[in-house]
Amino acid sequence: MNKTLGELLTGISYELLQGSLTTTIKSIAYDSRKVNKGTLFVAIPGFTSDGHNYIPQAVSSGAICVITERRINAEPGVTIILVESSREAMAVLAANFYDHPSKKCKVIGITGTNGKTTSIYILKSIYESAGHKVALIGTIGASIAGEDIQINNTTPESTDLQYLYSEMVKKKAEYCFIEVSSHALSLQRVHQTFFSGAIFTNLSPDHLEFHKDMEDYFQAKKKLFPAKGKCNIINNDDPYGRMLIRELLEKKSNVITYGIQNVSDVMASDIGYFYNKTVFTLQTPIGSKRVTCKLPGDYNLYNCLTAAAWAFADGRSLEEIVFGIEHVEGVKGRFETAYEDEELRVIIDFAHTEEGLKKVISAVREFAGGNIILVFGVYVAGSGENGQYKRYNMGKIAGEYADYVVITSDNPKDQDPVMIIDQITKGVKQETNAYQSYVDRKEAIEKAIAIASPGDVILITGKGHETSQVIGGKEVPFNEKEIVLSAIDKVKLNSGRVLNPSEG
After folding, report:
1. Residue 43 half-sphere exposure, CB side, CA atoms within 13 Å?
2. Is residue 66 pLDDT above 50, yes or no?
């Protein structure tokens, strides 16, 4: 797919510093390591490095055009284009390069702090069960008509995103359900994506090292709304959701609400929570039906309502909606059972926010016959006040809601894991003295299993689906499910029984 630079610049305000608009562009890249002969290189100012510093490297690798926010000089034969915002320009360039593929299938964006991943998998089940080809883009990765694709961010950069959309069109995917992060909305990653629908799940403190406060975080999420296409789906039980509903209705936007506590278009009633399922009556404007979902906990009930509300707005029948919800087997790393027998259950979950942690522990409490032993750590970008505040709060929630806490690290990256543990411990100690701490996450998991008694539930949170751990600048393999199974085998082999927490 080749296009002239002039064609790609359609819709962009720019200044031609040198070169020709008739230059033929074969690819677009923002990473100088991915530049080949005929590439247009977009220099983007980053948080840790600046793409402008890599322009010479890009040119030496074959870049024939550079998009820049600064007036620069380059060797003859390289076209230089000056723009006000490289990120915004890159999104337009990419959409033009791939012929605006998001307009050729239904793209539904879902944003909010918690519930995005599970919700898009429920939607996938509803639509695939009804015979549609579906694509997903989110935290676990991308999937197009059944083919899995690894991606680096929850919401990829605009060039990668437009490429994925183009692949969906090639493979005739009819629907794309995409998690839209606040970073993506703030950094123009979804600029030039045509959304047929937009969904808001909830908002609680997260990413405050990036957003200055909750209001700034909310304003970032609001950029997804109103959807350019069909409908806006909003959680009516969330205070920020209600604020968004009011604003959208004032703009005469089409809104469908869902909830449990407040009267909404799509609701759940007669709810029963069990260790391996949630049973409820789904109430919609097209009728009501009893549902048995294999995902436990009230937060998963909200995820079911999220998916049901969009499916209803899109014209799916009640039978299709219920069938899809009932046939979701589970989502990797989301309340995933890593081990279960008559004496012990080990659950892995991605919960990495205060609200997420509280909800997942509360869900376990509904069925735990013995103690809840929680293993967790939390990485927060930056070591400033927001990071300390989040770790302290999560520690406090852990101490209040779990019976025993094993504090450890998550992905410490370039931060001191001892500092991370100390900040979490301050919060835990406000609620309980029933805790231990281990810098080594593997050791922490093994200790939790060693101290468990019959009937206990071990909950391991923070990493979920991830299969590696980042320590310093190095990424090392780290599969929690494998670690759990190995540790349980060792306990059985060494002692023939499990221990009481007081013996630890």
Report:
1. 24
2. yes
Q: Please answer whether residues 278 and 272 qualify as being in contact, where contact means their C-beta atoms are separated by less than 8 angstroms.
A: yes
**What is the token pair recorded at 465?**
């689906």
Mention the CATH class of domain 3-97.
alpha beta
Reading across the β-sheet that carries 457-461, which strands appear in turn?
336-340, 345-349, 457-461, 372-376, 404-407, 435-437
- Whether the Cβ atoms of residue 81 and residue 70 lie closer than 8 Å to each other: no
Q: What are the E-state strand segments in 285-409?
A: 287-293, 336-340, 345-349, 372-376, 404-407
Compute φ and ψ for 395, nearest 5 degrees: -65, -40
> pLDDT for 384-428, tens place per residue?
666 688 889 999 999 999 999 999 988 888 788 898 899 999 999
The fold for domain 101-326 equals UDP-N-acetylmuramoyl-L-alanine:D-glutamate ligase (3.40.1190)
- The answer to whether residues 258 and 266 touch, using CB atoms and an 8 Å cutoff, is yes
CB neighbours of residue 124 within 10 Å = 21
Give which of 263, 260, 279 is closest to 271, Cα–Cα: 279
**Which comes out higher in pLDDT, residue 275 or 171?**
171
State the pLDDT at residue 411: 80
Q: What pTM did the predictor assign?
A: 0.86
d(CA 336, CA 141): 17
Q: Looking at domain 336-503, which of 3.90.190.20, 3.30.40.10, 3.20.20.70, 3.40.50.300 is its CATH number? A: 3.90.190.20
